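Course exercise 7: structure representation. Students receive a sequence record and must write out the corresponding structure in token form. The form below is the worked example handed out in class, using Microcin immunity protein (62 residues). Read each field label carefully; the graders check that inputs and outputs are placed in the correct fields and that the protein name is recorded exactly as given.

STUDENT ID: A-19
EXERCISE PROTEIN: Microcin immunity protein
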Amino acid sequence: MNYKKLHQLTAIFSLPLTILLVSYSSLRIIGNENSYVDVLLSFIIFLGFIQLINGLRKIFSW
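STUDENT ANSWER:
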């Protein structure tokens, strides 16, 4: 599998993994029961998944 295909898989799988682990109410930008902390935490988890998948990609493509 080439590097470009792995990069595309990273982009495809990082967002659904984030949505599965963070509740729907935390991802809503507009809502009464939503707080900025929930949005910040969901963004941090999203970035964490991107870094995790990038790290795994580097290990497996080595």
